[in-house]
Task: structure prediction
Amino acid sequence: MKTLFGKILIAVWSLSLILPMTASAQTTIRLDPSKVGNLRSTVSAAKAGDTILFADGTYNLNGDNLWIDKALTIRSESGDREKVILDGGYVTAETIQIAASGVTVSDITLKRAKYHLIHVMATSTSDANNTVIKNVHLIDPGQQAVKINQNSAKTRFTDNGTISGSRIEMTEAGRKKVIEINGSCYTGGVDAHQSRGWKIYDNEIEGFWCSQGLAEFGIHFWTGSRDTLVERNKLIDNARGIGFGMGQSGTWRIYSDNPCGGVANVGHYDGIIRNNFILQKSEALRNSQTHFDTGISLEQACGTKVLHNTIVSTAKPNLSSSEWRFANTNVQIANNAVSYNMMARDGGKAELSSNLENAAIDLFLNPAGGDLHLSESAEGAIDKGSALSAGLCDEDIDGDARDATPDIGADEVSDDGGTVVSKPAPAKFRIKEIIKQ
Result:
């Protein structure tokens, strides 16, 4: 018994030595602007699981960047994204390059990369899955703000990432630089190829257009992407809003479980676009060469659901408020409010229900100020939606629950506390009732 007891004591003592060593293996590395020339080498020397904290200040990168090939966390020490600015000055090609799984970037501002501010990329030997991008401010990329793509052999991928709580924007100065760098309007917000399971939510994306030429989308998943969730975003004054798929054919990602019956040439499989505000209010965009092109575009998108979005523009879009095209497009489009038309193109198919086309501007509270919540007299939208299956779109853009007679568009009329109250039929006024706890 003494021998057995002794062995147990030795085992417990051994664990007490091992566990602290394991915990201390993850290190916090602090950087300040004086160390700006050593960013790449500092990140390279870090170990998987480490956190790199940036002290407040502006980091003029002058060509330096962060190459991340292990699971790291990159964030500001203060948690205030506006107090830490990594400025590429259009000299740094790509500010943060993510070539590993399990990377987090948060609470930081990135601006003026020559190409991409964040580039998530698979390599020849590894995927780059489970990227987390949250509470970042991305300003004036030379091309796309966030680029996401597979390796060149199309054998490694970039799946199951998130982008949330962030602001992604293009200014007038940045717009001019895009033309200078590319000779065209080759820019956009989030652009992903052959990626599966991403969630893009609670972001503001604004200003991606040019006076000449057509910009890419504020949010775009294509070339065989799958299961993307895009919800509760506010997209303001972008030439194109949200796109799933593009083009009629291509060499795109193929899945072993043969989704959509195994048909070829699917630009996007399944996925949901719901509860987004998409708005064109800029007169300069309206008067640009290509105008506001479209709010939501589906091209070779099989199984996608477009639910409870609001799309408003001050003039007729170049194409339509929303469109679906090509033979492999077979989608559900329900309870969307759009200020102009919706349309099928080139053989695209859709199951349509309770969409409000040509919605009057006065249905919404303050489009000029960017607010597309329903006004107090939005009779054409309140209670006019179709009930959807549980789990498809149970809440609105603010997180308020939808009731059995949902409102059309991204906003559900509710009390200020977030609890939907019973609405009379027909609904004529916005209901505001303070429920005291």
